[in-house]
Structures are given as C-alpha cells and as structure tokens.
Write a structure and sequence with these properties.
Length: 157
C-alpha cells in the first residue's frame, strides 16, 4: 500500500477514467531533471507542478519541465496577483508535499493552469502524490481530468 497521498491520486485517476500508470522510483523524482532521468524521457516531458498563492487559494501551474514559470504571466492568466507558497502552506492547501504535488487528487480544488508548451508533446509524466511517484499521461488527458486553463506561463529568456 502506498502513502495516502498516492492513493488519493490513484483514486482520482480511476474516477476520471484514466488508467493507473503510477510508477515508483525510489531514487526520487523531486526535480524535473531527476524525474526525466528516472523515467527515461526528455525533461520537457515532465509535467512539473508549481504551486502559488492567490489569497487563500492554491494556484497550481502544471508546466513543462524545461520551462521556468513567470509569476506575472500566471497572475494575468487568472486575473489576480500570485505569490510564492512555502512548503507547509502547500502541504496544508493541497495535501501534497513539494516534489509530489499531483495535478489531480487535491484536498481542495486549486486554480489550475496548464503550460501551453505541454500541449505540443505526446506522453508526459506528472507527480503522483509523493517525491517518489509519477504517472504517465498525455496533455489532452491532463486537460480533460483537471479542467485547467491552457496558458502561456513560460518565463522569457
């Protein structure tokens, strides 16, 4: 049996009609580079989760592992300013530790943005509730399961 946070992701995938593609990597997948090395894909195929705060709400940006996220673009996309969220707040708001924040299975629904750059990719890998777990999916399935808004969130440069 996996951690409760991983089981929450497993249940959310099942509820969404998505196959259980969760895989465990004991060495960890905390960063996009670690995750890409673990699963054997390009870093751009890692759908990394970046959490910001908009007042009391969590804002989850699911971004390509190759991109840095521009907070200003995120604020424009959701129509309000955002600020960085610390690890304790992220855990309380989402039910996930940093490094394991999944795009599904949250304790309270976050405001969700999907990096437009992900939409050009085929298979992507996202965190599945712990820094050691990821699941295989497609950008189209992420969009369908989360109801996220696709936005340009990539930092220029």
């Amino acid at each position: 049996m996996s951690a409760p946070s991983v089981e929450r992701v497993r249940a959310a995938l099942a509820d969404a009609g998505h196959p259980d593609t969760i895989a465990a990597f004991p060495a960890g997948t905390r960063s996009a580079a670690e995750a890409a090395a673990a699963v054997g894909c390009d870093v751009a195929q890692i759908a990394k989760s970046i959490v910001f705060r908009a007042g009391a709400r969590a804002v989850l940006v699911v971004a390509s592992g190759a991109n840095r996220v521009d907070m200003g673009k995120v604020g424009i996309a959701i129509g309000q300013p955002v600020r960085r969220a610390d690890g304790g707040w992220v855990r309380d708001a989402t039910g996930f530790a940093i490094g394991g924040v999944a795009p599904v299975g949250h304790l309270a629904p976050p405001i969700l943005l999907l990096d437009a750059d992900l939409m050009a990719l085929g298979t992507v890998w996202a965190a599945a509730g712990s820094p050691q777990h990821v699941f295989r999916t497609t950008p189209a399935d992420l969009l369908r399961m989360t109801g996220a808004t696709v936005a340009d969130v990539r930092e220029a440069g």
